[in-house]
């Protein structure tokens, strides 16, 4: 991947499809069809990778990246960074990945500022509405101080993140 500035890394992300005609994401589940279209030279859609997180950074360029992102020596043994707080992993991600429009992009993110519960809830609801308008599935809400955790533990009581998704249940005609 030409967009990555170190020899080795493991990124968490998702392949998505983009509709160039309507300037929006294609609904989930069309990647195979669009991959075939790209092979055939069609340009109405394209696949791209959205980077969510960074799990490993090592090899040529890693020491410089760690220094830029104030990761102390020994804090990333063998290049593993999943134990670092999300805020630090996001700094690493932005330092090693060069976005290529509609090919490799960072997940859209916003920090909800400290404040009263009502203000924070309103800010989350506004972001959720914007995500739906952009054709996205919803939001993932994470604490910037947490490590990368996989499986049920990450979503259980005291979770490290929460998913807010819209459920499409069809239309009712009266």
How far apart, in Å, are the first and last alpha carbons? 52 Å
Choose one word for the global shape. Answer: globular
| Biggest sheet character | 4 strands, mixed
Order of helices and strands: EEHEHHEHEHE
Please estimate the helix content: 25-40%
Note the beta-strand portion.
15-25%
Instruction: Give the uncertain stretches in residue-range form.
Output: none
What's the Cα radius of gyration? 18 Å
Which secondary structure elements does this structure contain, and how are they paired or packed?
Layout: E1 8-19, E2 24-25, H1 31-39, E3 45-58, H2 62-68, H3 86-96, E4 104-106, H4 117-133, E5 138-142, H5 152-155, E6 161-165
Parallel strand pairs: 3-4
Antiparallel strand pairs: 1-2, 1-3, 5-6
Write up what this structure looks like.
By secondary structure, this protein is α+β, with helices and mostly antiparallel strands. It contains five helices and six strands. A four-stranded mixed sheet has the order 2-1-3-4. The longest helix has 17 residues. The radius of gyration is 18 Å and the shape is globular.
Brief summary of the model shown:
28% of the residues lie in helices and 24% in strands.
Task: Throw out a few tags for this protein.
alpha+beta; 5 helices; 6 strands; about 30% helix; about 25% strand; globular
């Amino acid at each position: 991947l030409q967009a990555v500035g170190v020899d080795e890394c493991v990124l968490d992300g998702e392949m998505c499809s983009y509709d160039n005609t309507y300037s929006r994401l294609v609904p989930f589940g069309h990647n195979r069809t669009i991959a075939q279209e790209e092979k055939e030279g069609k340009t109405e859609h394209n696949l791209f990778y959205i980077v969510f997180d960074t799990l490993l950074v090592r090899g040529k360029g890693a020491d410089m990246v760690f220094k830029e992102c104030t990761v102390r020596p020994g804090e990333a043994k063998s290049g593993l960074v999943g134990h670092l707080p999300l805020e630090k992993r996001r700094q690493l991600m932005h330092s090693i990945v060069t976005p290529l429009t509609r090919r490799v992009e960072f997940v859209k993110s916003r920090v909800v500022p400290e404040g009263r519960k009502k203000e924070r809830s309103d800010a989350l609801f506004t972001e959720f509405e914007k995500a739906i308008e952009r054709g996205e599935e919803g939001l993932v809400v994470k604490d910037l101080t947490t490590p990368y955790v996989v499986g049920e533990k990450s979503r259980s009581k005291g979770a490290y993140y929460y998913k807010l998704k819209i459920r499409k249940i069809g239309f009712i005609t009266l």
